[in-house]
Design goal:
Layout lengths: L4 H13 L11 H15 L3 H15 L2 H15 L6 H5 L8 H17 L3 H9 L6 H17 L3 H11 L5 H18 L1 H10 L7 H10 L13 E2 L20 E6 L6 H17 L9 E6 L4 H13 L4 E3 L4 H8 L8 E3 L13 E3 L4 H14 L4 E6 L3 H16 L3 E7 L8 H7 L40 E6 L2 H13 L6 E3 L10 H4 L6 E4 L13 H5 L9 H14 L3 H6 L3 E4 L4 E4 L5 E4 L1 E6 L2 E4 L45
Parallel strand pairs: 1-12, 2-3, 2-4, 4-5, 5-6, 7-8, 7-9, 9-10, 10-11
Antiparallel strand pairs: 11-15, 12-13, 13-14, 15-16
Helix pairs in contact: 1-2, 1-4, 2-3, 3-4, 4-6, 6-7, 6-8, 7-8, 8-9, 9-10, 10-12, 11-12, 13-22, 14-15, 16-17
Amino acid sequence: MRLFRAAGLGLLIALASSACVPTRVTRSPQELAAAQHAAQLASQGQFDQAVQAYLDLGRQTGDTDHYNILAAEVYREEGALDQAAPLLDQVRRPRLQGEDAARYDLLRAELALAHHDAHTALQLTTQPTPVPPTLELRLLELRARAMEAGGDLWGAARTRVQMDPQLEGLDHTQNRKQILDLLGRLGVEPLKRRGAAMQASDRMLPWVNEALTQLGVPVAQPQPDLDQPVGTMLPGADANVREGYRMPANVALLLPLDGNFAGASGAIRQGFFAGYADAARTHAPRANVRVYDSGGTADSAIKAYQQAASDGAQLVVGPLTRAEVAAVFGQAQLPVPLLALNHPDDKSLPAAGATEFGLLPETEGAQAADHMVERGVHGAYEVISDDDFAQRAAGAFKAEFEARGGHVAGMATLPPGKVNYADAIAGLNMPTTATPLAGTEPAEAASTPAAAGSTAAAPAMAPAPTGDTGIFISMRPEQARLLLPQLHVAHIGLPVFGTSHIYAGVDDAAADRDLDGVEFSDAPWLFDAQPGLPSHGGIATRLPAARGTSARLFAFGMDAWNLVPYLDWLRDHPGSYLPGASGQLAADQFGRIRRVLIWARFQDGIARPLTGSLQLDDMPSAAPPVDEGGSTPVPASSTGVPPASSSGLPPAGH
């Protein structure tokens, strides 16, 4: 599919308006006016009249080569490229210079492609003729098409990757789909070989990994760079001016308010407005927020998005389910920027103008692999439950662990509904030891453990000692409490590392004492490990949604609000990040928000962060100027939004 038809017409108009010819040629005012009139005819869709006007100018001025090329461009924009061929045949190519020469070659290349002559098209688009910046994208797009037609799928994909940063809107979305289609057609094994041979800095590596992911192959997930927190105070600026902050005036929140997703939506919504309320303490300008019911289906999500756009939203946050997100992404265009609260079920890239943010199990699996390798563990056994979260986390763990030089010696899936895991354990043939499980001894510096339910901050813990082999687990607390004692009985003393859902979100020293020594990744807010955020314990005493396992969804909602003013900055500044409740948040080149979690360990039945608080010198403020208008917007009186005079949290149950 040819891109840039609309852009090409715009360029044609600009060309004629400024005469756009070599500077050695002097045009009279009458000639310039006639050229502009011809361009206006083309812009109005009067293509035949525009062609005739250019041809008349050529005869009147004697510059037939220049105006034949412009007339041929009009035929191209009309979609009648073959009619341009006779005009180009009359052009004396050796006499052309500058932009005329470039346009002539591009038109010839496009004609060659139309007649299935990829060889000629490739010659014309790879020769050393200088091309003005206004025609560079067109050149690259034709070169990519010529490479694809000639069977060079890798070259075509690489050329389209070169185009990617310069594109916007539908062209951007189309080009990205074509990159992944080209790479996918190469096949899994060739892609794996190419990816393995690439340096980490190769701009094709993320695309190769994305293509492999869409082909169903787990791939390594390098951690995002966390170089600079957003919201750094601008030098010499007023105390309320922070770098990167841009708050839209009107925000829509799309969530399914009823049905199977009502519980998750409620926790996210309350977290969103907890973040909203917390912004008041810094006197931040806050958007008007309106809540829409996305309904939980594709059709209702599209209707909710369209209604929000019609109502004047400048940013839409949501929808929540994968099917809803895929449906909204699938629209021809997104007139309002979107922060989707999940990833689409078809694994497609975010649409132009969209950002994805989700609590992905793949993130936890990959970071567990990185954590183990950094601890000197290079051999691993995987023991997981049969649910979707665990299976996806395990796939990401294996891909990342092996990419980091580790070896997965075996994997076992625990049988659902069973309490005896002896067969699964025995089948892995893990090394045994007479010593206790590593890390179960109390740390020397540890203080008396907090009582169950305590909200006091626990002291930082030193990592437990490890050997060169460990166990990765992904399962709920109930299964983990059964598994760990059975590992002890089997004299398996390997260190154990897990995903977040091994922790129920509340301290229960009696129930979790069997998990002592297990390290797991989780959201920093659950441990009050991220300075600058409202206290988890304080909110949890008031709102049930902030307790237990739903606390992670609550933190996710807080981050959805806190991302709102920084989305543009995060996308445009690689290495910047938001210190969030669910993790350190950075945007990748595809428009996905990536999370970096903290690590905690059970000791005496209490989960404690390994590194204490995430101390950062520059914390983001919620207090720079509003996007447009200059005044602080008054919050809308929609469901769940605190009244304008309130700086407290919305009441529980809203």
